Amino acid sequence: MKVSRPARIRATIHVPPDKSISHRALIFNAVATGRATVEHILDSDDVRSTARCLAALGVPIDWPEGSAVAHVTGQGLHGLFEAEDVLDCGNSGTTMRLLLGLLAGHPILSVLTGDRSLRSRPMARVIQPLRTMGAHLAARRGDTLAPVVIKGGSLRGIAYQSPVASAQVKSAILLAGLYAEGETAVAEPSRSRDHTERLLTAMGAPLTSDGLTVRVRPADRLSAVSVRVPGDISSAAPWMVLGVCHPDAEIVLEGVNVNPTRTGILDILRAMGADLELVEERTSGGEPVADIVVRSSQLRATSVGGELVPRAIDELPLVALAACFAEGTTVVRDATELRVKESDRVRTVVEALGRLGAAIREREDGFEVDGPVRLRGARVHAHGDHRIGMLGAIAGCLAEGETEVLDDAVGVSYRAFWDDLRAATSGEAMAR
């Protein structure tokens, strides 16, 4: 896909539904009692992978192609059946890791695999604690990589100190904890997104949070909960960076989830001096929601690290782009987790922005960017990583000349991205 810089941007964009919540609404309701409706669900490749895997496990899911509404008929905590074939999680790490936690409590044999990217991403971080709880798991490359074979059964609660702040790891262990004898506790080095805790609590799970530790006890049942999914801040982030970096822009992003465990990108952009405003703040499905208005800004460099990283992990590639337009040197550190995403995002960010003329240097745990610089159009390869695909597209809309983005894979999380980008950069106001 080819893009170039527009002279002026005025757009209103209703960003896609939150991917994390869409996954969880399907998975948790699958083992609840009752029928739930998930409105404004994200119709993306990743979430479709979750739906297909659950259907293969015997969960009736009525979700027509192209629809934003899914109906899930819960089978109860012990109602999953053994799938007749391998469960294909596609490109979705959330699907694989959360299903491993759920299947740990079921005495059935399951094999989970995915595409080439997913088969290269670390699974030991989930396999190890689930094995300690009593589940039987085996995986490729010394039990570290998918495909993963799991047979669940009698579990015991554990107190687990996670070495990384990962909502996927935390969620997998908490799901297994619903089936375990005694209490299961997960402590993290810093706070990760809490969508699992919010939704499981709403469904009646015996779950408590205390600082960086979440505890759960075995559940008798979960009650199905219908959900209206708010907009995904990770899908809003490209537009925020486009708006603050472009010299003549105003973009309104409607209905965005501003859960404080996800708003690291807002804090980072504000620290850089971005003209950014939250309006019409409200609550939807137990999650805080707001419209976000961003305008052209004079940016300054910042430093990103520590507890801010897990709150902005998917948006850090875009922080590197914003840093190209900021005065001074921006440093992103403590972000080694970027290296085990759909691509090694430290390497692919440095490669992509470097091709456009950015003064960016790779660090073991992140990157450094000098600014401001004038980006120049170039050919950018996204390596099948949707976040790098969107990064390349937004960078191309801020660069001189034409930029071509290859192997963008944006359909993984944002199927309408290219349509929205064309409309935004052509002056059309949108309200999908």
UniProtKB/TrEMBL annotation:
Gene Ontology MF annotations: 3-phosphoshikimate 1-carboxyvinyltransferase activity
Active site (catalytic residues): D314 (proton acceptor)
Alphabetical keyword list: Amino-acid biosynthesis, Aromatic amino acid biosynthesis, Cytoplasm, Transferase
Annotated function: Catalyzes the transfer of the enolpyruvyl moiety of phosphoenolpyruvate (PEP) to the 5-hydroxyl of shikimate-3-phosphate (S3P) to produce enolpyruvyl shikimate-3-phosphate and inorganic phosphate.
Species this chain originates from: Tepidiforma bonchosmolovskayae
Chain sites annotated for binding phosphoenolpyruvate: K19, G93, R121, Q168, R345, R387
UniProt keyword Oxidoreductase, yes or no: no
Residues binding 3-phosphoshikimate, per UniProt: K19, S20, R24, S166, Q168, D314, K341
Pathway: Metabolic intermediate biosynthesis; chorismate biosynthesis; chorismate from D-erythrose 4-phosphate and phosphoenolpyruvate: step 6/7
Domain Enolpyruvate transferase: 5-421
Name of the molecule in the record: 3-phosphoshikimate 1-carboxyvinyltransferase
Record field: catalytic activity: 3-phosphoshikimate + phosphoenolpyruvate = 5-O-(1-carboxyvinyl)-3-phosphoshikimate + phosphate
Pfam family, one: EPSP_synthase
E.C. number(s) listed in UniProt: 2.5.1.19
Subcellular location: Cytoplasm
Stated family: Belongs to the EPSP synthase family.
Highest taxon in the source lineage: Bacteria
Subunit description: Monomer.
Primary location class: cytoplasm
